[in-house]
Amino acid sequence: MSVSIIHTLRVLRPAAMIALVALIGLIVGFYANATFFPGTSPEQPINFSHRIHAGENQIPCMYCHVQARRSISAGVPSINKCMGCHLEVATESPQIRLLASYWETKEPIPWIKVHDLPDFVHFTHKRHIQADIECQTCHGPVETMDVVSREAPVKMGLCLDCHRKNEVEHGTDCWTCHK
Amino acid sequence: MSNVDRRQFLKLVGAGGVGAGAGFMLAESIKHPVEYLIPYPIPPEEFSPGIATWYNSVCGMCPAGCGISVRTREGRAKKIEGNPLHPVNQGRLCALGQAGLQSLYNPDRLTGPMLQSGERGSEEFIQTTWEESLATVAHRLAAARDGGKNIYLLSEGVRGHLAMLLERFMGGLGSEHLMHYDFAHPHALYAANQRLFGEHALPYYDIRNTRYLLSFGADYLSNWLSPVHHSLGFGHSRQGTDLDRGRFVQIEAKMSLSGAAADEWIPARPGSEGILALGLAHQILAGGSYTGSDFDDWNAALENYSADSVAERTGVAAKTIVRLASEFTKAEPGLAIGGGAVDNHSNAVDTLVAVNLLNYLVGNIGKPGGVVFNSDPVVGGPANNRQANFIAMQQLAEQARQGAIDVLIVNNTNPVFTLPHASGFREALASIPMIVSLSSFMDETTTMADVILPSHSYLESWGDDMPQPGLGFPVAAISQPVVSPLYNTRATGDIILDLAGKLGMKDSMPWDSMEACLKDGWRQIYERSSPDASDFDTFWRDVLVSGVWGEDIHRQDTVVVDKSVIDNIDVAEPEFSGDSEQYPFFLHPYMSTAMYDGRGANLPWMQELPDPMTSIVYGSWVEMNPATAKRLGLLDGDLVSIASEHGSLEAPVVIFPAIMPEVIAMPIGQGHNAFGRYARDRGVNPLQILAPITATSSGSLATHATRVSLTATGRRAPPVQTGGETRQLGRNIVQFTDAGSTPGGHSANLNSIPIVVKTT
Amino acid sequence: MNFIDRFMASWRKYRKPGYYEEFDYAWTMTIDLDRCTGCGACVTACQAENNIPIVGEKELGRGREMQWIRIERYWEGEYPNAKLSFIPMLCQHCDAAPCETVCPVSATYHNQDGLNTQIYNRCIGTRSCAVYCPYEVRYFNYYDHHWDAPLEQQLNPDVTVREKGVMEKCTFCVQRIRQAKDHAKDDGRRRVKDGEVQPACVQTCPSEAMTFGDRKDANSVVAKKMNDPRAYHVLEETNTLPSVVYLKKVSANAD
After folding, report:
1. Of B378 and B269, more confident
2. Structural domain that includes position A154
3. Which residues have CB under 8 Å from B230's CB, separation 6+?
4. Is B5 on the interface with A (CB under 8 A)?
5. Inter-chain contact A174–C119, Cβ cutoff 8 Å?
6. B235 with C183: Cβ contact below 8 A
7. Which of B277, B312, B380, B651 could anchor a disulfide with B164, C-beta 3.0 to 4.6 Å?
8. C112 to chain A: which residues are within 8 Å by CB?
9. Touching check for A77 and chain B: CB below 8 Å?
């Protein structure tokens, strides 16, 4: 009996090796994707650089992201906010010309969301801003980024760690965040 | 490991490559799909993303005219609540009102102007532009006006400034034929009020403060006049005051929703309710509590209505008649109302005069808890004098058949569905050369149109309204758009103004838009009412923010009944179609909150709302008494054929404990063959087979005057019922107490989520 | 505290006598059966507020209802003395809820507000909670639901749209409670005022049959109504300690 098992294994060995290599390939491919194409830093329609605006020019976050202290969503500024300066500033730059073309046609700029929470999560910026949490805590050092990238994994662990550490009242109750 | 030859090596490399590719795709597939953040090019001032904005407006789902507050997020309507400040509904809203959102976002809404491209009724239309369609219609109307031909406008019952616009529009066309048609308009009640109280208007029935409500068939909690207001009053009278609990008695042949809420449900022979009322009046006089100067006249007039003779004619025991009269008189005060079936027999007007007489005899006219007259309308004017009764609709059909109507404009009303087949209305429409519809949906009447100029939903339109009936003091409210228009439709008022402009009526209708017309009209209200606001713009804004305006003006009239009316007080026996041998049952078609007159059928929430009395969804049925079912050998779910002299229908049987044995009841609202995916080809429409009998002296259709036969088909079609066992079987789920009242009951605080009000 | 310590602390407190006295709020609803007319406005308001799908005739025919609050009707007697009573039935948010004990993944539990929570992410769809519930107020999503465009524009962004395979039930409109607490914090208040938050059903009831509030607040409307001699719990004998108090219907007979 044992002979037939070894015999079977021997016969199947080529197939087993192929399966093994395929499995190794699967794992390698998976992690290659996760490492080299994490999607944490998508290319935006306009190469807006936070480093220039928030870093060098020290524009406060909430000058543009107006809603952050009063609403659940921080919002992204409308083009008229950009044009407030850029009607005059750096109008020759190709990116500003691109911006101006959106303004001419009144077409909204389709920014790609970097920090995307699922629909079943209730996250309110207002409460966090009013708790004096800096934007950089979750969004990372945005003022140093030329292209916004997702520094912290916006998974439940991030929320829970902070809620536990700061002993947020009812911060670990599921219904605080899950709708 | 043995040697790996080249073929093997290549297989391994291939496997590795495929594996890597698969791994890569796997990782890719579990990533979130890319989401976009799309800001506005210029942010709107009215709202902030993430914060809800509320708008106050007026509900347009039924004629009651409740005030609503609509919660919108990012320009989309999310939830309709009652407006806490509006005195009609005080923050509350019925199921049909809540479903207004599904009327706005209905997938079957008409999206733009259309021209009929096939035969009428085929629902083949082609899209066109507003310029073209308005020009076509204006041109046609001008031709008809210049050629002296007849133009008819058939509208739903509109009030306020839209009613005024329609009046002026038809005036400008030189046409007298402006008709409002609402299926549920209580013509007989208006006629009864005219006869007894001398005015063609509805008073306010103060259910809130009454201690004893005697309702003759009026389903005041579900669809009679102003159901939300009545429900508020009902709740308050029951358990909201420190006084003794209010008592509610319902007299009708089949238990309605109000009958279920009543403390006593008394079945009376169909059509005999007026006789019963006069019997009660006789008892009231006999009791000696009425001390008016016309006592002798009344006594003589009601001679023949002794308890015993009335008991024989109505089927209600003499003892009960005496008791009811005594209770009604002793209550402080009692109130009698009539509607529903009672409004829809051949003797409806006489019956309602008799019912109102009870109020007169106990002296509750003009008092809290009684009948309170309304002051003159403030805005536009009530349209009750334009309401077309059944005779008028038949005359319209006859005129059409004779080729006397050149153009018919239909605004948001569906007579093809609600008129009986015997009227021949649909067929008569074929003889009208041009039919224009302003409806938002492809209902049965709209399928007969040649040109459709679709109107906005009420949530996208400017308008104003005065609730009908009034509350005893002037109230008016503005309806404002809560969302941008979804489709290429226009507000009804704007369509009329545009046509008026094209037809040279700028003098009488100078406004560019409905909003401008409203502002102009409300300037007069502003001037008359000396408000706190320092200028009109502030006043206008205040009215929009609060959603309602009112004045503390009450009429202090007394009523003197004319002697000729007293002498002619009498209630004739009701007439029915069909002989009693061949057609042994009385058909009792009834409206529900959800379907109303059929308008709720295209709203999925309303289709899925179980009927409160039977918990059936998505269909039609016929209710019958258990003894009748046993006698005929019928079980729940057996399909039966119901036939009148004018047609037949099939529907499943539902055994219903609270209906008279010789009466069968069917719900109104289903049986559409157009009107969208949720409504069409579902159930049957009992209005189709009604006999064209009218109520004497009001000319309204007597919907309860049809006798029918009932035959088993041998098939079964059990309706979908959501409820389970309907007997408690000792489970004590609903518990009862004999305690008469709970002193110091509270009404809940009416605050809701804080309203974010944007001021300009 | 590490995970084990936290877990053991919660375990010791949970469902022991008196644990609900430590609630932050104790949300309670009262329903006066003498005022309820059975009109169904609460049912539709709940559907609008909570993104409840339209199940359709076929599924309803299979008994797969989806109404977080339903109107039950009960007949008494026979013609001509038949009487019909209505009772709105919704999740009772029982303090000793049978559904909480049976969930294998703790997707339903009692939170600090006295609410029986339902977390859709955690639910794996065993449906035992629906079996254990004596009031039969839990509803399962047998299918992914579909809204014919543009009906989905009406969906409430504050409430999850559920996928197939998860259980759902009345939440006492927790999104409104959450928002009311948020507004209270904005105003610098610690507590939500009585009457400030009302679930959709309570807000719309035309006969004002329902009230809602915090029974820990002795001045609230619900606290007073709970002491009404007519107050009772449905299926009290199952000892579930529900948070919904019903007021008995008065059967006032003729004199």
Report:
1. B269
2. 50-76+111-177
3. B205, B207, B220, B221, B224
4. no
5. yes
6. no
7. B380
8. 170, 173
9. yes
* Predicted confidence (pLDDT) per residue in B234-282, tens digit: 999 999 888 888 999 999 999 999 999 999 999 999 999 999 999 999 9
Q: For residue A66, give the chain B residue with the closest CA.
A: B48
Q: Which tokens in the block code for residue C98?
A: 């049978």
Q: ipTM for the complex?
A: 0.94
Rounded to the nearest integer, the mean pLDDT of chain B is: 91
B306, with CB counted inside 10 A (0-12, 13-18, 19+), is middle
Residue A106 included in any domain = no
Chain B touched by A123 (CB under 8 Å): no
Task: Please name the residue of chain B whose CA is at the shortest distance from the CA of residue A71.
Answer: B50
B492 shares a domain with B403: yes
In CATH, what number is assigned to the domain containing residue C128? 3.30.70.20
Output the six-digit token pair for B144.
């008809």
Same domain, A71 and A1: no
Chain B residue closest in CA terms to A123: B50
B11 touching A (Cβ < 8 Å): yes
Please report residues of C whose CB lies closer than 8 A to that of A124: 182
The answer to whether residue C161 neighbours chain A at the CB level (below 8 Å) is yes
Q: Which residue of A has its CA nearest to C163?
A: A120
B245 and B358 fall within a common domain: yes
Answer yes or no: is A127 within a domain: yes
Q: pLDDT by residue for chain C (255 residues), tens digit each?
A: 688 888 888 777 776 766 777 788 999 999 999 999 999 999 999 999 999 999 999 999 998 999 999 999 999 999 999 999 999 999 999 998 999 999 999 999 999 899 999 999 999 999 999 999 999 999 999 999 999 989 999 999 999 999 999 999 999 999 999 999 999 999 988 889 999 999 999 999 999 999 999 999 999 999 999 888 999 999 999 989 899 999 999 987 654
Looking at the 3D structure of chain C, how many domains does it have? 1
Q: Which residue, B336, B397, B345, is CA-closest to B365?
A: B336
Residue of B nearest to C42 (CA): B95
Can you tell me the distance from the alpha carbon of B373 to that of B198, in angstroms, rounded to the nearest whole number?
A: 11
Nearest to B18 among A25, A107, A112 (CB): A25
SS3 B129: coil
Judge whether C155 is closer than 8 Å to chain A, CB to CB: no
Residue C92: inside a domain, yes or no?
yes
> Which chain B residues are Cβ-neighbours of C203 within 8 angstroms?
81-82, 91-92, 752
What is the residue type of A41?
A: S
Secondary structure E strands in B268-370: 334-338
**Using the beta-carbon criterion (under 8 Å), do B754 and C78 form an inter-chain contact?**
no
CB B518 within 8 A of CB B27: no
Interface residue A174 vs chain C (CB under 8 A): yes
> Residues C214, C220: contact at Cβ < 8 Å?
yes
What is the pLDDT confidence band of residue B559, given thresholds at 50, 70 and 90? confident
Verify that B546 and B408 share a domain, yes or no: yes
**Could you say which of A173, A176, A179 has the minimum Cβ distance to residue C159?**
A179
Instruction: Sort out which chain B residues have CB atoms less than 8 A from A73's CB and list them.
Output: 49-50
Q: What is the pLDDT of residues B603-614, one digit of tens each?
A: 999 999 999 999
Closest by alpha carbon to B702, among B351, B444, B358, B357? B351
Helix (H, G, I), strand (E, B) or coil at B437: strand
CA distance B539 to B523: 9
* Structural domain boundaries, residue B276: 187-372
> Residue C20 falls within a domain, yes or no?
no
* pLDDT at site B381: 56
